[in-house]
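In this supplementary section we document a worked example of the pipeline. Step one takes a protein sequence of length 216 as its only input; no multiple sequence alignment statistics are reported here. Step two produces a three-dimensional model, which step three serialises into structure tokens for compact storage. The input and output of this example are shown verbatim.
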Amino acid sequence: MIDFSLTEEQLALRDTVRKFVQTEIIPHAHRYDVSGDFPHDVIRKAWENGLMNPAVPEKFGGLGLGITEDVIMNEEMGAGCLGMTTSIAVNTLALYPILIGGTDEQIKHWITPFLNEPHLASFCLTEPGAGSDAGSLSLHAKDEGSHFVLNGSKMWITNAGHSHLLTVFATTNKELRSKGTVCLVVPTKTPGVSMGKHEDKMGQRCSDTRAITFEM
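The serialised model returned by step three reads:
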């Protein structure tokens, strides 16, 4: 028999997030939804309360929480404001490729700053002509030996205008489709990276969404 009951630790996490939502998100959600402003203050408080980057393993200084705990956190925060939740939760999505495919040295280099400061990251997959189909990407990555050169664009990228780091999916050979896909870590201030305008959306308005152009 499968038991879907939450553990005591998971219930405690749920209650902690629920209290945060009631005190820090719900009272401000309407104002941010109307203005479309980015909720820097709420995101900082979420980071201060340990509600960001939960998947970073303990050996790197993180909480080492799993998918179930991540879902619990997102469900609770989403009940207060889905826009704020999207901006907070996308950090985990953006850092996962590094956690999954990076070496210990790379993880320490790229992810430790997110544990020391409330930095934001963006997961860059979606494109104007491909949607989120990783096998149909047009953003081209040319291998120059010590680095890659990117040319192309992304669309609907969450946190783009406020991110410190981008995890970017690109193709080295379109004919190979998904087998030609690489994921590259790109600091946002890299020369040749430019951001589009903040999209004035119908919902999740305080979550920053933009196009990104790579001309390297």
